[in-house]
Amino acid sequence: MLRPVLMFLALLAAASVHAAACPPVRIGYMDQDRPPYWLGKGSEVPDPPGVAVDYLRAAAAATIPCPVQFVRLPAHRLRIALQTGMVDYLPIEERADLPQDVVLPRDRGGAPDRGRAIHTSIIVLVRAADQLPADTITPRYFQGRVIGVPFGAPYTETVREAGIKVDDGGRDLDSNVGKLKLKRVDGVALTVGMPHDMDQAIAERYAGEVVRLRMPLFSSNIWLGTNPVYYAAHRDQVEAIWNWMAAHQNELIAMMAKYTRK
Question: Which of the two ends of the chain, N or C, has the fewest CB atoms closer than 10 A to its terminal CB?
Answer without folding.
Answer: C
